[in-house]
Amino acid sequence: MSHGLLVAGTTSDAGKSVVTAGICRWLVRKGVSVAPFKAQNMSLNSFVTNEGAEIGRAQAMQAQAARVEPSVLMNPVLLKPGGDQLSQVVLMGHPVGELSARGYHGGRQEQLLGTVLNCLEELRAAHDVVICEGAGSPAEINLRRTDIVNMGLARAAGLPVLVVGDIDRGGVFASFFGTLALLDKADQSLLAGFLVNKFRGDVTLLDPGLATLRGLTGRATYGVLPFQHGLGIDEEDGLRISLRGTVRESSSAGPVGADVLRIAVCAVPLMSNFTDVDALAAEPGVVVRFVDRAEEMADADLVIVPGTRGTVGALRWLERRGLAKALVRRAAEGRPVLGICGGFQLLGEHIDDTDRVESREGSADGLGLLPVRVRFVREKTLARPRGQALGEQVDGYEIHHGVADVQGGEPFLDGCRVGSVWGTHWHGSLESDGFRRAFLRAVADTAGRRFVPAPDTSFAALREEQLDRLGDLIEEHADTDALWRLIESGPPTRLPFVPPGAP
């Protein structure tokens, strides 16, 4: 049996995905065969494997960090939030229904745990090490009985647990101690220690606190990772990081020159796969910003309507905020618009969801910018298409319930183009370097910009650089000898129990 580790966190967004990816890259550079694993993920950012299965984008990124092919084994349960407090349950890469949080936690966990453990064992049989990522916090005691991703997984699989805390949020020592104290004795016996993430300043200032934490808990701190901008990994949710460090959540970019291309992305509700624009943000001279007001897109050279898990809901949101009228006006003026997946669907003439697969609203008229009629069906399209556009080869992936009937326009990546408006179901197409440059040149020409894409920007190479930076973080700032002993030998013996309320 291979060795393993569970990377948990004091909170969501504490840095579990980054640390898991960093450990994978550190290990594979040492010649260790390693694979990532997340039993249950909740995210609208997903990916299609070569098996035709849907998994979280974060696990696909971690597989790249480990230099292995992404597999459905790495993320057997994926929850995709939708409207009405429901989430689509994706089991072994394919949707099996929609459930509320109460319904999900109400009775299938034993069956799901069996599936999860089978996947983990398959990965263990094929690799020297499996690095597992938890979800949220292991101290969510209201969900402990049905937990299959944090301490429930660790106990079932005998995994040591490393808890990551984001010190940039403040209160990291209390979070470490409180996380441990809320666990029962059996779970505490698996929690081996802590890892501080996103520290700014002189690390020696932490020494008294780390020493006190060890005295109170009997657990070591395995490292202090410094804060770093622009790590550029695929997040589960959030709009912050790009490969060149652009702060994408802000729409308050300063004045830019004529040689800079400005791209506005509509921040639609239930946005999915916003990582589609990472490749654009990686280009020198491109400013990417997310917007939710019509005036914020006024000076944009390109507006992107991204994917969404609620196409009709996103359409209504665009209408309420005046963005729908602004998009129609842009198209009439011949200014570039790109719709991707759900964004493509709502740019069409009509959306038929009579079976209420997604919208719960039946049918709706789209913005009418493309000659496309969309019908939602229960079977989800999961594909890895390859084709050509603008004279360049393009690779992408598709994840959608909507079937598009394209009734005119110029063919474009299985979608269409009419004038300055493009639409496609293909996610990830902009990661194809030649196509991205050709597309940006077309946008710049239409917008009248003197913008020339950099001829040597390689998105894949930039992603590799970022993954190496994650590996460097672990190698340079974690106690890798102690970390390897933990991975190799399992939870330390005789870890003290810390009762709630202590000291």
TrEMBL record:
Cross-referenced InterPro entries: Class_I_gatase-like (IPR029062), CobQ/CobB/MinD/ParA_Nub-bd_dom (IPR002586), CobQ_GATase1 (IPR033949), CobQ_N (IPR047045), CobQ_synth (IPR004459), GATase_3 (IPR011698), P-loop_NTPase (IPR027417)
User: In Gene Ontology terms, what is one molecular function of this protein?
Assistant: catalytic activity
Origin: domain of life: Bacteria
Pathway per its UniProt entry is: Cofactor biosynthesis; adenosylcobalamin biosynthesis
What Pfam families does this protein's entry cite? CbiA (PF01656), GATase_3 (PF07685)
What biological process terms from GO does the record include? Answer: cobalamin biosynthetic process
What residues does the CobB/CobQ-like glutamine amidotransferase domain cover?
262-433
Q: List, from the UniProt record, the residues annotated as the active site of this protein.
A: 341 (nucleophile), 427
Family (UniProt):
Belongs to the CobB/CobQ family. CobQ subfamily.
Role of this protein: Catalyzes amidations at positions B, D, E, and G on adenosylcobyrinic A,C-diamide. NH(2) groups are provided by glutamine, and one molecule of ATP is hydrogenolyzed for each amidation.
- Name of the protein: Cobyric acid synthase
